[in-house]
Amino acid sequence: MTKKLPENFLLPEMSSSGPAFGQPSTAVDFTLQNTAEQNASHLRYAGFKGSFLTDQDIYLFKEGTHYHLFDKLGAHPAVFNQVAGVHFAVWAPNASYVAVIGDFNGWDKGAHHLTGRADGSGIWECFVPGACKGQKYKYFIHSRFDNFQIDKADPYAFFSENPPHTASVIWDLDYAWNDSDWMKRRSQSNSHRAPLSIYEVHLGSWRRKSHEGNRALTYRELAVELVQYLKDIGFTHVEFMPVMEHPFSGSWGYQTTGYFAPTSRHGTPQDFMFLIDALHQAGIGVILDWVPSHFPSDGHGLAYFDGTHLFEHSDPRKGFHPDWKCYVFNNGRNEIKEFLISSAMFWLEKYHADGIRVDAVASMLYLDYSRQEGDWAPNIYGGRENLESIAFIQNLNKAVYHFHPDIQMIAEESTAWGNVSRPVHIGGLGFGMKWNMGWMHDTLVYFSKDPVYRKYHQNDLTFSMLYAYTENFLLSLSHDEVVHGKGSLITKMPNDDWQKFANLRLLFGYMYGHPGKKLIFMGGELAQWSEWRHEGSLDWHLLQYDRHQGVYQWMKDLNHLYSRELALHTYDFEPKGFLWIDAGDWEKSILNFTRRADRRLEDILVVANFTPTPRENYLVGVPTKGTWKVLLNSDDPRYFGSGYAPQLGYSTQPVAYHGHKQSICLQIPPLSVMFLKRETALA
To answer: Which residue among 146, 491, 571, 668 has the highest number of C-beta atoms inside a 10 angstrom radius?
Structure first.
């Protein structure tokens, strides 16, 4: 029978993106029950049961354990019966008709229809002879329900049009990698006992070409400029805010539509591979932000994909997020779990990513996250825990670490949920690390206070050590702290400009002395006055001024010290790596502690003064005799400090103090942090 579809039929509040470049969408006559002759003709090209979707693929797909779906679904250039073309496959179980439309058929909805598999998988597939790399395409989907029709981008597309255009692009992932040395040794670079200092970057606003219309750098330009910058300043890793394709630049990438496609704003997939390759060759690891918690409602995307709530929960109490006005993945479906796990696996395998930072984990753990009473549905036991998402997260981490034990999965989790970075087999979520949001909050609150009042808030600094080893913590000063009216890091510091800069150097120094891996958002190292703006560039011109250059040089020296000194990173996650000397001098707002390695000769003493008052003849007990050399002093004039205490070393004296048999008598500069190391041992 033949059925006419109404032209431009859409659900309320949804809009079809239409074919590329605004070609008109037209209704199409089609046969729901094709003749045997038509089926036979179509299936000549729709085979691929041996090289694409095998019986084993379908078995794993239905089971929810197919974690490499990017090799099977989507658009794959191929040759069949000596005919070159492209194999298309899409999951749309509630469709009554699916066609692929694109440059290769004039966007004709009747030219190349897909055949629904008879195995109950809900997968449709076909082979289009003559289709080739670089051509744009979408899927035209007519639902079995409500006579709904729409054009959709490919959920598994490897490449997409440059926004605001929304078509998928046929592409391959061929690339000759040159990072074999890095890949062989990255297990050491990503180890919990390795130094991890991460520079968080938004690719579109790190640096722009002002003389070329303020355009963002391409991936290949970044492979030169960003790589050289990171090598100079000494960060061990870079974390990219989401590079996955997204329609709205103002979402910073967190409203993802292309879970298998790097954004075309900066170049092709191979260009992005080139950037990662260059970073690896320079010895710099790459962590990618990834968003499995929600997705936008754009008509060409995943929302209401086949005329039903396929990727999202149908119940808005579970399927729609009130904060971000977007949809929430239905992690109770096998097909959704493996879609997301396949996405994570994809970036690790095809793009050689060294880690994934999972965004908004807390929103996945709690059914009542950011919801009012009555706006959420409890789990089967009446609780607020999202059991389906918890199981998904655990499966995600088990799968990823099974295939790639040398990478890191990092959780942005903002609550007190226990065992986030503990193994699944003991009840944990299975992440390798967790952002320490508590440390970030307490520390910034403390630093925002005028130093005259800080003595009443010393516990804001010391409290973090009470829970420092309950998780594998990463200390983060991320983009979230310098947007939406919060001000930049330097503007959070109190009093006059000299104190602001001294406080910022002190903040970074205290951070690098504190147990935990490190992350700093771009611009912090410049002491940038303005909040981050995604449509502009960092204020690079500030480096011409001594005080800004001083912060940059301080960050550079901190990174190199942190990487060089075993005590500062080896036992970030183990109590034996830290020892308080004195946490109780609240009256003077001073903290003293040591970071420890296996050999006591490697110990680092950290002394921090959180007031602008210098301290003369300040006695500090130390664990071993010898000369303690000043490795770094944030008050050094080359950092725009005052140069108050130029002494480069302190010899111990036989005066017992702080529980130790010997001590050193220090000059402590104002608003400063010093790192000292025992230079010689005395008999």
So the answer is: 668
